[in-house]
Amino acid sequence: xxxRPGSPFRFGDAAAFRAWREAKLAAYPRRAAELVVEVRDxxxxxxxxxxxxxxxxxxxxxxxxxxxxxxRAGKELARILGRQFGLxxxxxxxxxxxxxxxxxxxxxxxxxxxxxxxxxxxxxxxTDGYYNPPERRIRxxxxxxxxxxxxxxxxLLLDHELAYLALRERNPAWIRALMRPGAMTIPARADEAxxxxxxxxxxxxxxxxRDGALHMRYTARTVSIGWARDAATAGAVACLADWLGxxxxxxxxxxxxAGMGVICNNVLHARTAFAxxxxxxxxxxxxxxxxxxxxxxxxx
Length: 300
Ligand SMILES: [Fe+2]
Description:
By secondary structure, this protein is an alpha+beta fold. It has helices at 14-27, 47-60, 74-83, 110-113, 160-170, 172-178, 231-243; strands at 36-38, 62-66, 90-91, 101-104, 123-126, 140-147, 151-152, 155-158, 184-186, 189-191, 194-197, 200-202, 205-207, 214-216, 226-227, 252-254, 260-264, 268-271, 274-275, 283-289.
């Protein structure tokens, strides 16, 4: 694949960065409603629907589709939708079913209960798969809502390119620190059977050599995360945590209702706490992909 000339994420091309910055800020949605595309059937998008989703992906690395709720269609629907954007290589993990589609719902059993996605608690800012090894880097995901909570459970979404932009503007040395391969370390997780996941160390920001796209690996968690011990990394991490605080104007907030979903290039996201109705608990399907959702004409 041809390398994108003048990638704004590489140092040494200040003009490309300035031009990209201006265009990015001008195009970025001001409200979550701007991300929403009404679609008749996510499994068979009309040309105009597809174009509208691509346009949001280009502007903000994410789009929200809204369709009428369909009983028992969520799992397959998300997979078929993804294929229409070149998403084929599904990452599967040990909590997902064999098909790599995770059911995100409150779980009472002990093993899953340890993991916040399977509780009703709030989830802080992160990108997906921040603990994955580099060969299983998560570049995109789809989150499809089959059933929303009785109360709460809002999604917060923020294009990770804006986190890069904010930090680089404040102090380029912070970006250089977060681009080092050892910037962030997730320690090994041991279970009764031995080591379930090896320690994983990687950069927060990285540029895909194939297409120049920016990837971010991040969690706002402070427990069990090891940061490189230098002043630039510490400054960057503190600034990022502060920037992601309550008043970030680029954080787009909405609640996914049944039939709605997010398709995105693994942007920063968070979730508010929720309360379930016992007869109809919140249920989302999530698929993680090893490639980006690729709008035509973007990074090619
Ligand atoms: Fe997530």
